Every structure is written in C-alpha cells, then in structure tokens.
C-alpha cells in the first residue's frame, strides 16, 4: 500500500483570527442594503465575512510550514509589503495597522515566516469586513495570493483553484470564492437556490450594471400596468388619502350559552404607538344584537388598550365573557380553511399630505374586497400555457411545530392568502410573464436573466402578502411571512399590504432590494461561476478536481428546506417555470433525497430517520472526497445544540473518508436571539476542517489502526492545548465544547479504526463520551482559576460546568420572546414557563458522567423531563436546603418567580412567629459547599442578614476557602439579570465586612 503524500498545511489548519472575523460576521447580520440575503429568502445563510475569511485561509498555505513552496512565500511577502505604503495603511483596521506600519519601517520583518503568517491573518481579518468586500486593493491582493498559492501547489498556469459547494443554498460560499479569485461550482437539489446562484454567479458577472438597470426599468413597467389592473381592488379614499395597509382579524362564533356572537381574534387592541402616544381600538358592544364594533381612539397611553380577545390560542368573547378553548378555536377556523376570506376588517392605515393615520372601515372597502373574491372565483379553473392552474392550489403539508398554520385548515398554498392578496400576486405574476415577451428578443439569455430577477420580486411580494403577515405596532409596518424564521405559524390577526402604495412590503421596495444586490455584487467584477441542480450524493464533477470543498450542509432536523421553499416554488413555477423546465417539472420541490431528519414531523416522512440522514450525508461527503484533490481540503459547517445531531454528522464525516484536522467556531449570530434564553443555543457555527484520508493514488486509506490507550493519552493533551486558545478568543460554553471536536477528532479520525487491546473496535459514540469528559475537566480548570477543581464535590463541579455550557447563550439574554398568544399544538393554555437552566438531556448526561456524577441521583439539583434536563433554580431548592415544606401558595409564587425578596421562603419558621424570633430559628448548614453557597444566596435574597452571618461566621461556612472560590466562580457564570446573579454578588459583597 502506497504511503499518503504530505502537503504543506493551509493557514486554516494552523490559525485563524476568529474573534475579529466573528465581530464582522455579527455586524453583517444587521447590514441589509446590497447584501445577497435580501435578494430572496433562504434559510440559515452563512455570513459573507466568515465565508471570505475561511476560503482565503483554506486556499493559502502557511508560510511558516517547512513544506510551504518558496514561490508562495515570495508572493505573499511582496503583497504584504504592498500594504505598508501610506495609502494602503489607511485602509487597515487599528488591529492590523501596527504590524504593517512596523514592517514599513523594517521591511525585513516579513522575512520571519511567523511574522508573515501573522500579516496574512491580519489581512484576512480586515478583508472579512463588509466595508472592504468590494475595495479594489483587497480584491486585487486576495486574487493574486489565491493564484500564487494555486500555482505554487501544482496548479496549471492560468487556471484557478476550484471551490465546490454541494449544498449551495443562498450562495454565500460560491460568491466569496469568486470574489477571492477562485472558480466556483454551486449545486443544490432544490431549484430555488439553484436559481439564486445562477443570478449571483452567472448573470451578474456576465451583465453587471446593465442587468440592474433593466430590472429597475421593467419593474417600473410592471408597476404601471398593475396600477391600472388593480385600481378597482384598492380604491383611493374620497379625501385623496391612499390606503397603505388593511388590518384584519380572523373570527369565530362564541360558544357561550345563548351567545353566538362573532368574535374577532385579536392579540391586542393597540394599533400603533409613537413615544408616549398610542392609537388603538375601543370596543362598542351591543348586547341586544350580540355585535361588536370598533372605534379608533388616538393620543392615549399604550396601557389604555386591553390585551385583546386572545390568550394562548383561547378566545374570550367581549360580550358574554365566555372563553372558547384553543382546540375549539382551531376547529372553527379549520372549517373555514383558515378563514382569511371571512375575516373582520378592523382598520385601514392611510397616507395623505397630512401624514399617516388610521381610519375605520367603510362600505367602499368591503365592496372592493368583494370584487377580489369574485375575481378569484372566476380564475379558479383557469390554466396557464404549460397546463398548470393559475392559482397555486398545491398541497401545503403539516409539519409538527413548523407548519402549524395547517392546524387551522390551511392545507393548500393558495389558502395562505386572502382573495385580494391572491389577486395582486396573480396580476404581478402575469405581468412578469408578459415582460419576458417585451424585453429585447435579440438577446434571449439577457431577457431570461431580467425576468428571473423580476420573478424574485414577486416572491418578495408574496412574503409580505400572506395571511400570517402581522402588523408591528411599535414601528407601524408589516411584518413578513417568515419573520419567525423557518416556520409557518398561526397568526389570528394579520395585515394586508397594498402592493402599489408607499408602505412597507410594497412592489417598489421589492425591486429596490433586488437591484441593490445586483449592483453591489457587480462591483467586485468577478468571473462567472457555475450553478447546477444536482444531488450532493452524485455531483457532476470529475475526480480530484476541487482544491476546496466548502459547504454548509443541512443541520439534521433543524430546517425542512424542501417543504418551506414550496411557498416560493409555486409562484416561481407560474412566473418563470417555462424558462427553466428542468427546474420546474414537478408540482412541488423534490422531497426524496433531501438530507434532513423529519421522521417525527409527519408520517409521510417516516423514512427520514437518523439513519437515513447519516447514510445520505456519508454518501454526499464521500462523493465530495472523490471530487476533492488529494492535496485539497474540506470545510464543513455545522451548528446544532443536540449531541445526537453532532454524533450523526461526525459519523458521516468519518465514514466518508475524511480526517478532521481543525475546528473553528465563528460567531454567526446577532447579540439578541430568540431561543437563547437559559438554554444551550450555539452562538457559533463550527467549521470542521478536513483532509482526505487516502493514499497518494487517491484510494481511501484503510490500513491505519490506532491503539485505544495511545488515543486516550493524547486526547486530554490536545484539549489542554486548545481550550486556553478558545478562552482568549472569547469562545465559551457550548461553542467551546463543540469547537474542541476538531482537535479531538483529529486524534481519532486519522485512523481507519481504533482498537482496544482485545481487538475490539472503539465506536465513535464511546470515543465522544471520553471527549466530553476531557472537555469538562479542562473547562473546570478554566472556571476555577488557580484552584483544584477536583477538591469540589461533584454537585458543585456539575453546577459550574452546566452554567458554563450555557454561557454562550447568555448573549441572547435580552432577546424578545415569541408572541405568547400564538398557538402551537404542544402548548396548553395556562402552561407556565420553566425556570432554571436547561440543557439537552444527552449533553447534560455526558457532562455529568465526565464529572463522575449521575443525573438520576441528583434529583434535588436536576430535573429530567423527556429530552430536557433542567438545573433547578436556587429558589426551587429552598425546601431541600432549609428542611421544611413551605406554604403551598408560597411555593407556587416562588416557582412562578413572582415572590419578592421578603417572601421568598419561610426558613423553617412558623408564619405566626414574631420578627424578633425569626432570625434565631435553627437550620442545618448544607452538607456540601454548593448547598452552603445556595443557602447563603437565599438568606441574602430574603433579607435575613442575621441568619446569613450565623451561617458564614458561627457555623464556619465562610472559613472554607472553597466556599468563596465557588461563589466567585458562580458569580461569573450566572447570567446577568437573574436573581442568582444578584444574590451571589450580594453574598460576595458581605465577605470583607464579615472579616473574611
């Protein structure tokens, strides 16, 4: 068997400025104008900053590596010296300026290979900044270095390295590959990302500004024509005001005895607020006729307006007070197929010379809507030239907890819209088809490119024109369909955009967003790439053709891409389906072959199991290894909080013949994230860097067997080397745990298999148990600085490790919660939110096991409920810590988090005892250091200063150095704003005053 060839390491295998790249990636999330994410919705896009940096670091060799070609070292030195000129120094960030300014004074600094490496890393960090993405100097340098690296590593002169993304999605990776001077091949099984990538990788490089100008021109033509055709459906007000948005509420019949009133389902009677002034609806109830009318009231405080008729999916009748349970509300709505067409019009938001304001509905409004219903009725059976119905009546499936809109009878895509919303979309789609005939027929490919972008505008309009678009009171604008990400939730009240008016979500906005992207992408003046529809398990590329496989594959069960994308697919099929027959041959997107775990979401996907995901992902990664050159790399992005998902993904990586050689966490989330509160949600995406495990002839290496004892000896050494680096970069918690998988897996995955002394093969699952134990032990040494973590009891170590694991999610502490009135089938009315700190059960089990603890035996500290383990809040441990059952009402108040400090618990005293005796009552100090720390926190929190002093001084808890070390560690770990954080800091503040 031939020996594997050895190549110089790439920069990404050695170092990466992840802290600076992460800062640019986070900032990029708030950049909108011109960003490709605004071209068309696609889910879980990669930040361009991270993609650009990773591609450069993956294609460029490390100049400090002994095997790095001199040709690249020379080219890198020349390029970096070029950045020491006065003009280019001004383009650098303060973090990079010092290094390059020093080299300007002493050019020989770059003769030191480590210094040259650091200069390249500085350049990469600066280049990842959005502001520098189209700066000519950065573009030129990156392209010269990419070409120099390619030729120095054996690439033919004049060719460019090929970067392949077999799960191309929104196109961030292939776009950045072109930007830095590589060739890009993007493929996806789903037609929508294929189209997105064709526009960005093929059409924009080919046509540039001309394409943007044409889209703007024909967008105006469509608007002009649509205004004529839609005028009767959106009449102007008699006073000249223009409606911008119509605010609707679905309705049900009250089920109260003898009532039967029509009840609008409204979250809040508040319409809008500006500062301290608000506008809302005031109810006018007629008991005799059982009717409800609304009047608009202005210039009141927001608190004047009641909550609404809805509470967690249940509806309360304003007339009789009867509450219709959520299941019955859904049942009534289901009989009306969602009820969008029989909803109650509440108010109209208008614009005039006097500004924007609300008005009440009138008969003209109802007549206009009635005309739209008649129009849709006429079009019901109409067909397009390709034989499909004009109205998108394809099935909208049910996916548990994702497509909850299905629960109220919305079972076809056209039922997502009211009749007038459908009317406007059908008109725009028709005009897009007509525009293709009118655009310059001499250049059919250019006309196709223009119409494709116009079709994206229809999709953007659809996103703002469904019956789950809500009215955002704080800003008085329309929220779009996918405002909550990858789901179609139930929205009982909704806002209808006027597409040709000047409000949010209109046609002008759709065209503007798209043309800005086309112009921004064109600035880089890249070569053309290649986008194709293809399965990742069978890529249409020759063997050994790619220098880099860089991909962001599906995250196990996180996003049902195919089903979600049908929302747009059914419209694209009706706008440009005939232009791309190979992409739109079926009625909906292809579901077979999609690599995602959906077995629990819908019975028809029972075959999409964990094993299905693992097998197909292994096939996809195996085919990527076939495509990758022997000296090439693969970077696989993954982010999932469940250990099962990671184990499945990693097993697929190893089974497909890759060796993991590094892993880098890059923060890709904004500071406030919806799901981050008190749960281990990853802030970072982990970039696994892999090399092919093969021989020099390209065959998979199968003859290298590892010794289990040697692997176990090397594992903690690698983790010990890696963890401090992560801490320096600010990577903590769950992010750090999963970031440690790279060095840990390098130890394991470089072997074909690992065997124990008896010849038994060590499975990945068993090895990962050891990884978690090693990570937990190393993390504790970080948590308990200058202290021996082994000296603490398992309960203290587990609590500290648990909170540390959650610490990455603390960034999202101020995130808004989802609207509690929106119904999901898992929520029951009145269900309270759990306090405490939650981890996925298997992750918690692995942490505990690594620390020598058993979760099931720690019932006074941890509660296990199905797949979730919860570290109890300190207040929940009061009964256990002080040895007496509390008053039932007091326990209820504590668990709801509503008790004040003086009411927190009774400290084992009787309710009728006077204030002079309460502090003297005896309680037993906790058996462990953690128990004593928690007791002190509760004593401080309830204002029991005398009892706190007795615990710390008289009972000697404060004389134990471990007490204060643990308290200090917990202070750093408890999230800001929690009672625990306030209490532990209060205890620490008493330390000096008590003589410790």
Explain what the structure shows.
- The chain is of the alpha+beta class.
- Among the domains are: 238-370, no CATH class; 784-817 and 834-994, no CATH class.
- Helix content is 41%, strand content 14%.
- It is built from 31 helices and 26 strands.
- Strand 9 and strand 10 (314-316) form a beta hairpin.
- Residues 670-681, 809-834 and 885-921 have low confidence and may be disordered.
Give the termini distance in whole angstroms: 68 Å
Give the strand order of the largest sheet, numbering strands 1, 2, ... along the chain: 17-2-1-18-19-21-20
Which percent range fits the helix content?
40-55%
Beta-strand fraction estimate: 5-15%
Radius of gyration: 31 Å
Major sheet attributes: 7 strands, mixed
Query: Which regions are unreliable across 5 or more consecutive residues at pLDDT < 50?
Result: 670-681, 809-834, 885-921
Q: Which structural class should the secondary elements be placed in? A: alpha+beta
Task: Using brief descriptors, characterize the structure shown.
26 strands; 7-stranded mixed beta sheet; alpha+beta; 996 residues; 4-stranded antiparallel beta sheet; globular
Summarize the structure.
The chain is α+β, with helices and mostly antiparallel strands and 996 residues long. 41% of the residues lie in helices and 14% in strands. The longest helix has 22 residues, at 209-230.
Could you outline the blueprint of secondary structure elements for this entry?
Layout: H1 18-28, H2 48-59, H3 70-82, H4 86-89, H5 94-105, H6 113-127, H7 136-152, E1 162-165, H8 172-179, E2 183-188, H9 191-207, H10 209-230, E3 242-249, E4 251-253, E5 262-264, E6 270-274, E7 277-286, E8 291-300, E9 310-311, E10 314-316, E11 323-324, H11 326-335, E12 344-352, E13 355-359, H12 363-379, H13 419-438, H14 444-463, E14 471-472, E15 477-478, E16 493-497, H15 507-522, E17 530-533, E18 546-551, H16 561-575, H17 610-627, E19 628-638, H18 643-655, E20 658-667, E21 684-692, E22 705-707, H19 708-728, H20 733-739, H21 741-749, E23 753-755, H22 764-783, H23 794-806, E24 837-840, H24 841-850, E25 862-865, E26 868-871, H25 878-882, H26 888-895, H27 915-918, H28 929-941, H29 945-954, H30 961-973, H31 979-989
Parallel strand pairs: 1-2, 1-18, 2-17, 18-19, 22-23
Antiparallel strand pairs: 3-12, 3-16, 4-5, 6-7, 7-8, 9-10, 10-11, 12-13, 14-15, 19-21, 20-21, 24-26, 25-26
Helix pairs in contact: 1-2, 2-6, 2-8, 3-6, 3-7, 5-6, 9-14, 9-15, 10-13, 10-14, 10-15, 12-13, 13-14, 14-15, 14-16, 17-18, 19-21, 19-22, 20-23, 22-23, 22-24, 23-30, 28-29, 28-30, 28-31, 30-31
